[in-house]
Amino acid sequence: MYTREIQDLPEKFVCARKPVFGTFKGHPKRLDIRGVFRPIGVIPLPVFITNLRIKSRLTFSFSSGDFMGHMSFVDAKILGYMEAVFINPKTKQKFAYHCVTGPRKRLIPHSLEKASASTWKKSRHARISWDASAGKFAASFDLKGNGIKPHAAGTITADFVPEKIQELTSVRPNPTSRRCSATYNAVLETKSDFTFEFKDGQKSQVSQEPGIGFFDMSRTYMRFRSHGKSVIGMSRIKDKIIAFRLCEESHDAYNPDQYNFNVLFHDGRITPLPPVAITHSRGYENDWVIQDTENMVDLTFTPSASILKRISAVIARTEYRTLAGTFEGTLMDADGQKISFKSLPGIAENYLIRL
Asked: Is the pLDDT of residue 298 over 90?
């Protein structure tokens, strides 16, 4: 059966200007991959220039009551981008709020001990913060509406202590060992309080609703053009938390059996999963099939609502398609136990980035 060793965290992810690859338990003090030796070709460019090719993303996905969605920050150095998506799969209501920021020193921090990412535009305030010493995590937002979208405001909180969260950090070649990509994943038990207020006075409210959150921070030496697909599922089965993340990207490692970001969190145990193929032969709006070659992953994702956002500026172009729906199928954990489910809520994403 497929397996990847989960190792102890190294002091740094770049030592002697070389990336330290592997799958590591817990979270580092800093998620930092700067300083790799000649990550772009053989031209001896200064480190401060090659560091500009590092793109960062911070995403908090959540499932709470009837709503699911995510808050996401993207730091591409020349511009920053925030997206907040809320989807009700039952009613197919979907609200998306976006904010583009200009160049700034750092939108997404390196620290995983105590830090925050935020936008402060009056009509698009969003903030994700965490403090490991105080054991607190919070995602807050105050997003102005219009004639179509409601005014959305609220907070999602969680305990950010090792006893109540499940964590995994991974560093992989991107796609060769000359470049690297690092990601940190954490599964949280959340409580949500948020309100959607429409222009006609109608309100939709979630109050002290328990749920599941998936916190993901990644840093990557990006190619000039990248694309990929990913899925995240999160729920409870027989009072046991289950969450997983599976992805297939253009910059997957050249040896994906040894290095990838696929993982299953179930009942307090972490299972690294093999590389997968994600297909949707009938289009994005129809069933997605996620399978591996080790018989550990066999899933079907059925979308119920989707949101597409495109941004073009000079030579830069990004396209994010977010879909909410349900999973059906089977996953196998490290003990060989098969976990079968139907109608498990989750989010899928298809992206294209050219920077």
From this structure: yes
